[in-house]
Design goal:
By secondary structure, the chain is an alpha/beta fold. It folds into 2 domains: 8-98 and 297-383, Orthogonal Bundle (N-(1-d-carboxylethyl)-l-norvaline Dehydrogenase, domain 2); 114-291, NAD(P)-binding Rossmann-like Domain (Rossmann fold, 3-Layer(aba) Sandwich), CATH 3.40.50.720. Helices cover 51% and strands 10% of the residues. The protein has helices at residues 8-29, 34-45, 51-58, 60-74, 83-91, 122-133, 145-164, 170-178, 203-216, 232-237, 270-282, 298-314, 319-329, 336-343, 345-359, 368-375, and strands at residues 114-118, 137-141, 180-183, 194-197, 222-225, 245-250, 259-264, 286-291. An 8-stranded mixed β-sheet has the order 3-2-1-4-5-6-7-8. β6 (245-250) and β7 (259-264) form a beta hairpin. α1 crosses α4 (60-74), α4 packs across α5 and α12 packs across α14. The model has no long low-confidence stretch (mean pLDDT 96). The structure holds acetoacetyl-coenzyme A. Residues 44-46, 158, 161, 165, 167, 228, 251-253, 255-257, 299, 333-334, 339, 343, 347 line the site of acetoacetyl-coenzyme A (CAA).
Length: 392
C-alpha cells in the first residue's frame, strides 16, 4: 500500500505507536515516573490520556505486536518494542493503576509573595497572567514600553474573552491588571521572591541575564527559567547561587495548559525545588519533576512525533488528512501541523535538533521540510504563515 492510500486509523497508528514505545523507554530509563509521564502529556498537551494509560487500554501485548511488525519492516530501533514493554506484555501486567507514588503535599520552604517575570513574548505574557490571577504581585521586565503594553494587551484580551463567556468580571479584571507593574529596568527585580525568566532561547542572551540577576536579586530569591532547549545547569553556573536556579517549564498557552515541568540540576537546593512545587500547586498547575536533560519529559515525547508527522507529509500523505486522523483516531486536541504552527517552527526545530544531538537516534534527525519552513521564515502563527496560512 502506498502512503497515499493510508487510512486514518493507519496514519494514527504510524505516528502514535512509536510515541508509546518512546514513553516506555523513558520509564525504563528511570528518567521520570509513570505518573509524571502520563500527567506530562495530559496536562502539557491536553491529551485525554497519558501514553502509558493508552498502552494499558489497548493492551501491552497488542501494542508490542504492532511495534514488532513495524520494526520488522523498518529496521528502525525506535520501532523495536522496548524491553520493558516486552516484559510487561509477557507477564500480562500493566503500567498504571499501581499503588501510586503519592507523597506529602509540597510546602513553601521559602516565602513567595512577589514574582518577577522577564520577557514579553507569548509565554511570558501567559505566565504573568497565571501569577496575577492567583493573587501574586508581578513585576514584568521588558525591553521597551511597547513590549510591556503588549503583555497587558494580551492579558486584557484573554480576560475580556473570559468576561464575555461569563467566566470572569470587570472587577476581577481590574484586580488582576492592578497586580501587574511593568518596568524596562532589571533593577526593579531587586525585591521579588522569585524571577521567572522567559526570554529568547539563546544561551548567550540568557547567560548575560543570569549574571545580571545574580547581581540584582536579593539573597534567597529563586531564579527560574522557562527554557525548553537550553541547559539549565549552564545558567546556574554563571551565577554565584546555582542552588537557587531551577527550571519551570510552562506550556503554550500558559493560562490554559495546566502543566509545569519542574527541572532540577545537580546543584538545585531541595528547598528551592519544594518551594517551586508548592508554588505550582498554589497557582493551579500540575507539576511533574525531572532532571536537566534535553526535552525534559514532554518535549522529548512530543517533538519526535511531530517530526515524524512532517516526514509522513514528505512521503506524500496530505497535511489535512494527517491533522484529521490524529484528532479523530487518537483524540488529540490538535493535529500535528496545527500544533507546530502554535509552538513555532523555529522553536520546534531547535528542540528537535537538541534531541537529535543528545540521543543520537537517526530517527530523530529533523525533517527537511521543517528546516525549510524555518529557512523561509514560515514560522507559524506568529509570522502568519507556517504549515498553514493565517494571513486571511
Ligand atoms: N490564551 C488564553 N486562553 C486561551 C487561549 C490563549 N492563547 N487559547 C484558548 N484559551 C482558552 C479559551 O478562552 C477557553 O477558555 P474557557 O474554557 O475558560 O472558556 C479554553 O482555552 C478553550 O479554548 P477554545 O474553546 O477556544 O479552544 P479549544 O477547545 O480548541 O482549546 C487549546 C484550545 C486549549 C489550546 C487546545 O487546542 C489544546 O489543548 N491544544 C494543545 C496545545 C499543546 O499541545 N500545547 C503544548 C505545546 S508544546 C509546548 O508548549 C512546550 C514547548 O516547549 C514548546
Amino acid at each position: 500500500m502506498t502512503s497515499d492510500a493510508l487510512g486514518n486509523d493507519q496514519i494514527a497508528t504510524t505516528l502514535i505507536y512509536p510515541y508509546l514505545n518512546h514513553a516506555v523507554r523513558m520509564l525504563e530509563s528511570g528518567y521520570a515516573t509513570a505518573t509524571d509521564i502520563d500527567n506530562g502529556m495530559r496536562f502539557g498537551c491536553g491529551y485525554p490520556q497519558g501514553p502509558l494509560a493508552v498502552i494499558d487500554q489497548i493492551g501491552p501485548a497488542a501494542v508490542r505486536d504492532v511495534l514488532a511488525a513495524r520494526y520488522a519492516e523498518s529496521g528502525d530501533h525506535l520501532h523495536q518494542p522496548a524491553d520493558l514493554l516486552e516484559k510487561v506484555a509477557a507477564e500480562g501486567g500493566s503500567f498504571t493503576g499501581g499503588s501510586g507514588e503519592g507523597s506529602a503535599a509540597p510546602e513553601f520552604k521559602r516565602a513567595i509573595s512577589s514574582v518577577g517575570v522577564v520577557g514579553t513574548g507569548t509565554m511570558a505574557s501567559g505566565i504573568v497572567q497565571v501569577f496575577a490571577q492567583s493573587g501574586y504581585d508581578v513585576v514584568v521586565v521588558g525591553r521597551g514600553q511597547d513590549k510591556l503594553d503588549g503583555v497587558i494587551g494580551y492579558i486584557t484580551k484573554n480576560l475580556d474573552r473570559a468576561i464575555s463567556r461569563g467566566k470572569s468580571t470587570e472587577d476581577e479584571k481590574s484586580d488582576v491588571l492592578g497586580r501587574i507593574s511593568g518596568s524596562t529596568e532589571r533593577e526593579s527585580l531587586a525585591g521579588v521572591d522569585i524571577v521567572v525568566e522567559a526570554i529568547a532561547e539563546d544561551l548567550a542572551i540568557k547567560t548575560e541575564l543570569y549574571k545580571d540577576l545574580d547581581r540584582i536579586c536579593k539573597p534567597g530569591a529563586i531564579l527560574a527559567t522557562t527554557t525548553s532547549s537550553m541547559p539549565i545547569t549552564q545558567l546556574g553556573a554563571v551565577t554565584n547561587r546555582p542552588g537557587d536556579v531551577i527550571g519551570m517549564h510552562f506550556f503554550n498557552p500558559a493560562p490554559v495548559m495546566k502543566l509545569v515541568e519542574v527541572v532540577t540540576t545537580e546543584s538545585t537546593e531541595a528547598d528551592v525545588n519544594e518551594t517551586v512545587l508548592a508554588l505550582c500547586a498554589n497557582v493551579g498547575k500540575v507539576a511533574v519533576s525531572c532532571s536537566d536533560r534535553s526535552g525534559f519529559i514532554v518535549n522529548c515525547l512530543l517533538f519526535p512525533y511531530l517530526n515524524d508527522a512532517v516526514k509522513l507529509l514528505e512521503s506524500g500523505v496530505e497535511m489535512d488528512t494527517i491533522n484529521a486522523a490524529i484528532k479523530e483516531q487518537a483524540s488529540l486536541p490538535m493535529g500535528p501541523f496545527e500544533l507546530l504552527d502554535v509552538v513555532g517552527n523555529d522553536v520546534s526545530l531547535a528542540i528537535q535538533q537538541e534531541l537529535f544531538a543528545e540521543f543520537k537516534e537517526p530517527g530523530f534527525a529533523p525533517a527537511a521540510t521543517l528546516e525549510k519552513k524555518v529557512a523561509d521564515g514560515h514560522l507559524g502563527r506568529k509570522t502568519k504563515i507556517g504549515f498553514h496560512d493565517y494571513s486571511a
